[in-house]
Specification:
The complex is a heterodimer of chains A (261) and B (280). Chain A is of the alpha/beta class and 261 residues long. Chain A has helices at residues 53-60, 90-96, 111-121, 127-140, 144-147, 160-173, 190-203, 216-222, 240-245, 250-256, and strands at residues 3-4, 11-21, 30-38, 42-46, 71-78, 81-82, 97-100, 178-182, 208-212, 225-230, 233-239. In chain A, the strands form two sheets. Chain A has a seven-stranded mixed sheet, with helices on both faces. In chain A, helix 3 (111-121) runs parallel beside helix 6 (160-173), helix 4 packs across helix 6 and helix 6 runs parallel beside helix 7. The longest helix of chain A has 14 residues, at 127-140. The radius of gyration of chain A is 18 Å and the shape is globular. Chain B has 280 residues and is mainly α. Chain B folds into two domains: 3-43; 49-279, Orthogonal Bundle (MetI-like fold). Chain B has helices at residues 3-43, 47-50, 64-96, 100-114, 117-132, 137-162, 165-173, 178-206, 210-213, 233-241, 246-279. The N and C termini of chain B lie far apart (52 Å). Classes of the chains: A alpha/beta (261), B mainly alpha (280).
């Protein structure tokens, strides 16, 4: 059984009866997931390790296609089309749906080139335009002040928290409509975590956000909607304050009160 | 004897033994270097670079033909072997991955890496020298390329493997096509490692003698004809060092010295690249 709240806002994504099976597995890792994702808001996915949160997140930008044999069934509707369709252009899909990973993934190049990478991929060559977009992205990611004097330095010289904000800058530079965060703070210290959380909250004016987190407090702090997943199923989706205060499903209640995890 | 005393004594014995072993090993290394440098420097002069080898007793005698031959043979092997090795390593790491074909290539190249170089020499002798009817620089180039290939292929494979998967995924997540992920992200991340592999591969073949004896053989005079036998530092050194004439032996020392300095130089440059990479 599952309880899915209705989303009154416009929807960024609609996941319908979605099954996902890894190449190495016989059983699907995600079963009949149906989940609306509201536009310009933050949807958090919580649940114990191995419940399928990251698997679901990585389906939204078809990351699983990098490894042969993985199988999708059902639909993920985005802008009126099913992105699981074989004809879907994964390159333009991933330009529109960006992703931030658990560990910072600064490319082995300068800070400037990192942020310009996605823009250059789209064929932007004009130096002034590139410079403006890089500056804007770094400002939006709240890291401009720290790096403006060393844009030409190697990005790997930055601290973990700075690298993660750089990755966010790189992702928002191409102006995606949706951003997927896969446990973006689990490798960071508390202060950097706070910085990223504030940033995520600010970003929702421009993008729709789905964030996977191990940390229930984090979900409660930043998100508008929270989905609780267990053993490959979405057990409950609700407005965050309602889900944490008055969960509708017994499993959700047991999880958020710490009876298992 | 208490447990502590016992531990202190065993600790002391292990330390003395390992230090002694290190000193013995290093001692031989420095001995070799000392003999090589002292004889080599004595043998060095400008004539070595200016003149071809002459019969014993002639004043104007040098290693010009061997130096030029060495450069041509090792240079051409590098030009062919490096791109081939890097691309094959790229196939293994980025495209073939754990497939049967990729694993077979890995196994075969591991075997080839430990195959005695003289075997490679006799293989090229059988398939090139005999059909052509004579020794040739080309056959030498092919032999050295075959020896170099598995080294560069495996280092490239290993070094590309060290680039974290998440880095590739991050590039794909920005909408990068696969070839750009490989060329712009993965290569860049593995640059220093691949370059070191190339240096070590070149250094390895530059010191090979056995495969050249079967293939490019030797020429006492200057030749740049790829279809004719060609001198190399190693084969020349072997010939001169085993000759009974003092001035030929002197040239042998000079060849050994130049070759060692070349390989030492390559290794030092390789290390510097790695150091520089870490410093950043």
């Amino acid at each position: 059984m599952s309880t899915i709240c209705s989303v009154t806002e416009e929807k960024a994504l609609e996941i319908n009866k979605f099954d996902f099976t890894y190449a190495s597995a016989d059983e699907p890792s995600l079963k009949q997931v149906t989940m609306p994702i509201a536009k310009n808001s933050i949807t958090a996915l919580i649940g114990p390790s191995g419940c399928g949160k990251s698997t679901l997140l990585r389906s939204i930008n078809r990351m699983h296609d990098l490894y042969p044999g993985n199988k999708y069934e059902g639909e993920i509707m985005y802008n009126g089309r099913n992105i699981l369709d074989e004809k879907e252009d994964l390159i333009s899909l991933r330009v529109n749906i960006g992703m931030i990973f658990q560990k910072p993934t600064a490319f082995p190049m300068s800070i400037y080139d990192n942020v310009a990478y996605g823009l250059r991929l789209q064929g932007m060559r004009n130096k002034t335009e590139l410079g403006d977009r890089v500056e804007k992205a770094l400002k939006d990611a709240a890291i401009w002040k720290e790096v403006r004097d060393r844009l030409k330095h190697d990005a790997n010289g930055l601290s973990g928290g700075q690298q993660q904000r750089l990755c966010i800058a790189r992702a928002i530079a191409v102006e995606p409509e949706i951003l997927l965060f896969d446990e973006p703070t689990s490798a960071l210290d508390p202060i950097s975590t706070q910085g990223i959380e504030e940033l995520v909250t600010e970003l929702k004016d421009k993008v729709s956000i789905v964030i996977v987190t191990h940390n229930m407090q984090q979900a409660a702090r930043v998100s508008d909607y929270t989905g609780f997943m267990y053993l490959g199923e979405l057990i409950e989706l609700g407005k965050t304050e309602e889900l944490f205060v008055t969960p509708k499903e017994r499993l959700t209640e047991e999880y958020i009160t710490g009876k298992f995890g | 004897m208490t447990a502590i005393q016992k531990r202190v004594i065993i600790n002391g014995i292990v330390m003395v033994l390992s230090t002694l072993s290190a000193v013995i090993g290093l001692g031989f290394l420095f001995w070799i270097l000392f003999i090589l440098v002292s004889n080599g420097i004595e043998a060095m002069n400008w004539d070595i670079f200016l003149f071809e080898g002459a019969p014993p007793g002639y004043a104007e005698s040098g290693l010009k033909q061997a130096l030029v031959g060495q450069l041509i043979i090792v240079g051409a092997a590098t030009v062919i072997g490096v791109p081939l090795g890097i691309l094959a390593g790229t196939y293994l790491s980025e495209y073939g991955q754990r497939s049967k074909l990729a694993e077979t290539i890995r196994d075969v190249s591991d075997i080839m890496m430990s195959a005695p170089s003289i075997v490679v020499g006799s293989f090229v002798y059988a398939v090139m020298v005999i059909p052509m009817g004579h020794f040739s620089a080309l056959a030498g180039i092919v032999a050295l390329t075959i020896i170099m290939l598995p080294i560069i292929l495996r280092t490239t494979d290993d070094m590309l493997h060290l680039v974290p998967t998440t880095l590739r995924e991050a590039a794909f997540a920005l909408g990068a096509p696969k070839y750009k992920v490989v060329l712009q992200i993965v290569y860049r991340g593995a640059k220093a490692g691949i370059l070191t592999g190339v240096m070590l591969g070149v250094a390895r073949v530059a010191g090979e003698t056995a495969p050249l004896l079967f293939t490019s053989f030797n020429d006492n005079y200057m030749s740049t004809d790829l279809f004719a036998p060609m001198a190399s530092l190693t084969v020349t050194m072997y010939n001169y060092a085993t000759s009974p004439y003092a001035d030929w032996q002197r040239l042998g020392w000079a060849a050994a010295f130049i070759l060692s300095m070349f390989i030492l130089g390559l290794n030092i440059i390789g290390r510097l690249i790695l150091l520089n990479k870490k410093g950043k």
